[in-house]
């Protein structure tokens, strides 16, 4: 199931099956600041803590209680928690959508004293639409209306700000859900060729976007030895998708290169994974879906920033032509990599992608990858690892992370660890000294292919999937870091 979002009036909102009202809880407070009158019942925005406890409404953001009605709409009271931040409204939107089930939802937003109506409205819509995602029922749809209310009625300016936030939230959430669908799709149905077609179909329709899909002859001509080496064990042909977004050709706009890992299934190659280790390996193309979705959002929002987005796509399988441990691959920039662990394949295809990105005139390069299990060990499944060669770029991404609610933690690039992947027969080898510093070693290897440009690496192996639905996350793919990239690009645009 999916939802569409819009701004509507009180009259329209009262016609739906479920009405959501965000509330704050205060010690000793009575029911004050009424939002609406429904069947003679005042619905407040501030409630006493004691009353809430009796009804099962907790203090943390996203807690919800449903007041059911036989004749009128059900009313969902959703807690905003202590800080009433956009993150709280995102959780409130998700809780309201879950409470509404498959029916339409109207979210009544009290605008008195609301500092950032656009940000709040965007957060509500993101939470509701993200929580409504369902891979099985993707074609089923219903609506979520955001109804700005207040006493007196919201001004035209506030109404316009809410409208802007709703529209932006809908664009972002739809792109996240599209990326989640690609990641959740079975690997047998989402081969490199099919995934490339999905990217081409969507982004080819976006304004100011040009899409190239490179087949194997072109990939060979462009000397992408890492990508070809990983894919040669599979019967499925390898692809690379090269996308540019330039809204104002000739203008001096910020230019960012985005590179996403696109291994549509990772068996580990001849360094074979366990059966359990393969179960979620359709997720290994998440990075590619994220950078393409972020580029699509930038286009649809009309952001004033140039983007070069690169997605190397392949499978890492066991076949008669599969790369063997000890083989040496030559990357586009001429560097050689000794492959001692074929299950450390992401850095091989990203080396080619980063080399291409470094050849562009981009002022910064960001790659996104489900790169290492070590990231999951270090930070778990709710925090992504950020590596950066440039403090300003790191600060910009951490700021974007804070605004999006997707938590990133900056990890060190320890120069002395480069000795761990010295090779006797190539420029580098593709592994360090297991089990030491696995995520750091992966990042250091990638840094070799960025030509000294400001660069950041997002290792999202843990948070790329959720093992249960919680908050605005649904079980399965999360597209973690996509909203952070959108916030980063939006800040550059502004």
Describe the protein's architecture and organization.
This protein has 494 residues and is α/β, with parallel strands linked by helices. 35% of the residues lie in helices and 25% in strands. The protein has helices at residues 10-13, 49-55, 86-100, 117-131, 156-184, 192-203, 216-221, 225-231, 275-278, 286-301, 346-359, 373-379, 391-404, 438-447, 482-493; strands at 2-7, 18-26, 32-38, 41-48, 64-67, 74-79, 105-110, 141-149, 209-214, 239-245, 255-260, 262-266, 306-316, 327-330, 336-339, 364-369, 383-388, 407-410, 428-429, 455-459, 465-466, 476-477. Strands 9, 10, 11, 12, 13, 16, 17, 18 and 20 form a nine-stranded mixed sheet that branches. Helix 4 (117-131) packs parallel to helix 5 (156-184).
Short description:
With 494 residues, the protein is an alpha/beta fold. It folds into two domains: 2-152, Leucine Aminopeptidase, subunit E, domain 1 (3-Layer(aba) Sandwich), CATH 3.40.220.10; 181-493, Aminopeptidase. The protein has helices spanning 10-13, 49-55, 86-100, 117-131, 156-184, 192-203, 216-221, 225-231, 275-278, 286-301, 346-359, 373-379, 391-404, 438-447, 482-493; strands at 2-7, 18-26, 32-38, 41-48, 64-67, 74-79, 105-110, 141-149, 209-214, 239-245, 255-260, 262-266, 306-316, 327-330, 336-339, 364-369, 383-388, 407-410, 428-429, 455-459, 465-466, 476-477.
């Amino acid at each position: 199931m999916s939802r569409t979002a819009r701004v509507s009036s009180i009259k329209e909102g009262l016609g739906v099956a479920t009405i959501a009202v965000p509330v704050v809880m205060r010690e000793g407070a009575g029911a004050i600041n009424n939002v609406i009158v429904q069947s003679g019942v005042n619905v407040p925005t501030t409630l006493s803590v004691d009353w809430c406890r009796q009804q099962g409404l907790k203090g943390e953001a996203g807690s919800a209680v449903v007041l059911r009605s036989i004749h009128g709409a059900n009313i969902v009271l959703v807690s905003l928690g202590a800080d009433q931040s956009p993150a709280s409204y995102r959780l409130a939107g998700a809780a309201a959508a879950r409470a509404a089930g498959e029916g339409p939802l109207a979210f009544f937003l009290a605008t008195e004293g609301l500092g950032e109506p656009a940000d709040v409205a965007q957060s509500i819509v993101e939470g509701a639409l993200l929580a409504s995602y369902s891979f099985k029922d993707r074609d089923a749809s219903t609506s979520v209306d955001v109804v700005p209310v207040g006493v007196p009625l919201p001004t035209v300016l506030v109404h316009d700000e809410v409208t802007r936030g709703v529209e932006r939230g809908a664009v972002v959430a739809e792109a996240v859900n599209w990326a989640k669908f690609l990641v959740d799709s079975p690997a047998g149905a989402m081969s490199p060729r099919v995934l490339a077609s999905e990217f081409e179909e969507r982004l080819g329709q976006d304004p100011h976007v040009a899409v190239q899909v490179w087949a194997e002859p072109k990939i060979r001509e462009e000397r992408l030895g890492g990508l070809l080496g990983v894919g040669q064990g599979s019967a499925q042909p390898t692809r690379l998708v090269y996308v540019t977004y330039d809204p104002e050709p000739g203008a001096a706009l910020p230019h960012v290169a985005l590179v996403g890992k696109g291994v549509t299934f990772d068996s580990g190659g001849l360094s074979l994974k366990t059966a359990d280790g393969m179960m979620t390996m359709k997720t290994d193309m998440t990075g590619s879906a994220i950078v393409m979705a972020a580029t699509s959002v930038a286009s649809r929002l009309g952001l004033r920033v140039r983007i070069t987005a690169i997605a190397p796509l392949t499978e890492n399988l066991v076949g008669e032509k599969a790369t063997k441990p000890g083989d040496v691959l030559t990357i586009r920039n001429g560097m050689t990599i000794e492959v001692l662990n074929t299950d450390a394949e992401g850095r091989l295809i990203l080396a080619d992608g980063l080399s291409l990105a470094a050849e562009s005139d981009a002022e910064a390069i960001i790659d996104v990858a489900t790169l290492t299990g070590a990231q999951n060990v270090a930070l778990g499944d709710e925090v992504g690892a950020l590596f950066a060669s440039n403090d300003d770029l790191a600060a910009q991404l951490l700021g974007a992370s804070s605004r999006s609610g997707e938590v990133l933690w900056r990890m060190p690039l320890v120069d002395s660890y480069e000795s761990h992947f010295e090779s006797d027969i190539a420029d580098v080898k593709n592994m360090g000294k297991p089990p030491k510093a696995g995520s750091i070693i992966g990042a250091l290897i990638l840094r070799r292919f960025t030509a000294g440009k400001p660069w950041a690496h997002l290792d999202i192996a843990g948070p790329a999937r959720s093992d249960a639905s919680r908050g605005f996350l649904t079980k399965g793919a999360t597209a973690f870091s996509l909203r952070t990239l959108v916030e980063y690009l939006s800040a550059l645009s502004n």
